[in-house]
Amino acid sequence: MARRKIIAxxxxxxxxxxEALALVETLKPLVNNDDVDVVYGVPxxxxxxxxxxxxxxxxxxxxxxxxxxxxxxxxxxxxxxxxVDAGVSYVIxxxxxRRGYFYETSEDINxxxxxxxxxxxxxxMCCGESLExxxxxxxxxxxxxxxxxxxxxxxxxxxxxAVIAYEPIWAIxxxxxxxxxxxxxxxxxxxxxxxxxxxxxxxxxxxxQYGGSMKASNCKExxxxxxxxxGLIGGASLKAEFGEIVNYNK
Length: 250
Ligand code: 13P
Hints:
- The chain is an alpha/beta fold and 250 residues long.
- The protein has helices spanning 17-27, 47-53, 80-86, 96-101, 106-118, 131-136, 139-150, 156-161, 180-197, 200-205, 216-223, 241-246; strands at residues 5-10, 36-42, 59-63, 90-93, 122-127, 163-166, 207-211, 230-233.
- Helix content is 42%, strand content 16%.
- The two termini are 22 Å apart.
- The site of 1,3-dihydroxyacetonephosphate has 14 residues, from strand 8.
- 1,3-dihydroxyacetonephosphate binds at residues 10, 95, 167, 172-173, 211-214, 232-236.
């Protein structure tokens, strides 16, 4: 089965609402590619204006985080229903920056993934190893653990629609990209893990992105790999270059 590529920006903590609108306008003529799904992962405060600004285009909006409770006394958090009502389609969960700076565990991320599915949001679950783990030779073991815990209780039908982003921590924001072979090796390992947890049909359907210094100059080689179904792009999603990545096949 041919999986549809998904090219997503992760704006992280960048873009005020007015800057966000300017960026959407800049990108508008550059991100038309009917062959791929295009997603902007934007800060919470930008969600409402960006959803409005991309109406009528091929672009979908992702939140960068979400809480796993329905509502109530959780000062500062955003609920799944809020995202759905605002017109969000995807939610990035378990980014290494959230795991690292905000102490999110795979168990927290699992609760968020289950909640996202309950509300019809598609999770983009991030996983990835540190440089130290890579050097110790425990990359795949670590990532398999992140995937297994993250997907606990997720049904095969849900998993088929999910997105996993493999983002080696040492490649994020460093300009140091994993080689296409390194990225493919882990993305294939993730797919094998999904096949073991579920079945071949689920492994075949789930989409696995690579993230970590993906840019116009290296995206073609990465996206040509059989198990890399897209990209989660940080720095290069904040400029016109993102359009070149979206149109990697043109
Ligand atoms: P960079 O593309 O800036 O390395 O960021 C990758 C990333 O963390 C996307 O989620």
